[in-house]
Amino acid sequence: MNQTERYESAKELYRGLGIDTDQVIRRLKEIPVSLHCWQGDDVKGFDQDGPLTGGIQATGNYPGRARTPEELMEDMEMAMSLMPGKKKLNLHASYAVFENGEYADRDQLEPKHFAKWVEFAKKHHMGIDFNPTFFSHAKVKDGLTLTSPDKETREFWIRHGKACIRISEYFAKETGIPCVMNIWIGDGFKDVPADRLGPRLRYRESIEAILAEPYDPKLVKPCVESKVFGIGVESYTAGSAEFALSFAATHQGVLPLMDNGHYHPTEMVSDKIPALLCFFPEIALHVTRPVRWDSDHVVLFDDETREIAKEIVRNNALNRVYIALDYFDASINRISAWTVGFRSFQKALLSALLTPAELLKGLQDENRMSELMMLQEEIKLYPLGDVWNEYCRQCGVEGGQGWFEKVKAYEQDVLSKRK
Ligand SMILES: C[C@H](O)[C@H](O)[C@@H](O)C(=O)CO
Ligand SMILES: [Mn+2]
Fold first, then answer.
1. Strand 220-225, strand 179-183: pairing
2. Is the ipTM reported for this complex over the cut 0.90?
3. What are 82-119's pLDDT values in tens digits?
4. Where is the signal peptide (predicted)?
């Protein structure tokens, strides 16, 4: 059978489950997934020369890292040409583009410093999500920013956050797509602190000061991303899950953002999604793959990634969950890392859309658990790959491994020349 015949055969099989694969493909094409710029340069950014801090690490030293805005945009374009589906551009403030010798510190950033990125996003018909960069900067004092006991330090970072509110609104107005602005700080302590409450009270106050910056809540979606520990802050992080959830629950219009690398290894974010959907109109995610710790490995088509996609789809929450990828692997070709991760989550969304959720819920509600188990297991061997190939064909990208030849050629022609 050729690919078309295989798709037609798969279509019939899924029709037997009450699934219209043509409609699934149409729907998947419209689900935006935010693609993080920082996989392309190991989270280095353009505005500082110092090391990556904040308790995160991009391990490896694969040649060809993007060093300039132009190189990063070129690499993202290459990667996006290999990915099916709708993308948003996810930027950090540290990726500001200064021209003609200009420079602005983090608290002085303006929309004009991101005009090149808006041009890039418009060229690719993308919305833009944004992140204040509360790390990798000299004004991180003793590892602290918004929680610092030093007022001047807090005020610098509050000004940075306010500047990012203004830039986020600029992005939304320029692209016509709301901007998710994610607040994450690495503030914490390596060893047992004497005061866990004080930093959190200051953090709450600082975020409230940032959000006092006027903005249109239809255009800017502020989020607070939690974390359980970081490298060098193993004993305490101010922005814990309880803090982030409580802040979002008590501040109108603020979304909790869950990164599935930010919990204890046995905790599953997939299970947390339907819990939060009971209480929050909207939530945000960073989809990643933690190995032993919050290692930010490339997302794969693995169980938890599939479960995360399933919870979003089967709870009819595609319009309530802002999906972003967050991983940075410096040990492999970065174009391939971007591409594998994005395609993996597209596969997870497709798998979820091809699952007969109502049929399975009915079996659960009727306590027909034996049949439920049987059917959930049998569906795993349905021909997802034939629908995937048709989806990729319609999106104009390779369904199988052929795309990697293009990555190898790009490495040969472009990346290898970056000395
Ligand atoms: C670069 C991102 O802001 C960062 O990865 C953050 O989202 C995070 O997950 C830190 O562990
Ligand atoms: Mn994250």
1. parallel
2. yes
3. 999 999 999 999 999 999 999 999 999 999 999 999 99
4. none
